[in-house]
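Sequence and fold
=================
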Amino acid sequence: MSKKGYLLAVLGVLVLVAGVLILGACTGAQGTQGPQGERGPQGERGLQGSPGTTPSQAELKALIAEVLRGTPSTVAAIARGGRLYDNWVEETKATAPASNQPLWALQTTNARTGIDTWRCKECHGWDYKGKGGAYSKGSHYTGFVGVYDAGTSKSQEQLLGILKGATNARHDFSQVLDEQSLNELAAFLSQGLINETAYIDYATKKPIGGTATNGAQLYSGVCAACHGADGKQINFGSAEEPEYVGTVAADNPWEFLNKVRYGQPGTTMPSGLVSGWNLQNVMDVLAYAQTLSQ
């Protein structure tokens, strides 16, 4: 503020104080209001600060990523992650790598080659427990650990790093999957896994607590349109070795659960998770599917 402005301000305060004192001393009737005085000159405006710098595109992306970090993934993203876990080549319509997955050389018990070696389920199992679950023996045994423990103990960001080879360069899937697919696969591992020991009897392969009568209604209303009332409208196998809904449900209930919850990779099969089916619904359908002819 200039000196002139300061003096005018002080003068205005003194006049105000004097007026208050005079009004306080007077006891008579209030006179008519006098004319309004002239408005004093406006004080000088301070200097305007310099404009801030415009954030770069990289900085904007970083800010957006920071806001989105920790936000729960959509159900559709988790479901697609489940299909990528099943068979990411079929789901993305990508060209299958010509060679085996680099980590496959660490085991000699599973004789499969090619695309099978790149499928997450082949190493870690349909029940997500690897050598500690349904793939603890038989032709699918590899000796690799499952993903259940990591999925329930690590953050989605940490799981994404593992998929990109942060802990083992031979486990880098960023060369074959785009960023969206990697994030959806990490979301599935972080938010979509269940402990199937509580839902399937590993000795009998029977669902625990599944009700076939309820499953029949769900199957008839959703599944029968494509698979047929008897489950034999689609043959997943060959003419020599046919495989139907009932076959999968009886022989590999863990695979059945994954496909019902998340869908069949690369097809329009609806995801039970996206459709709002809870685990009891899925177990009921499994119980019914096991009654279908094989």
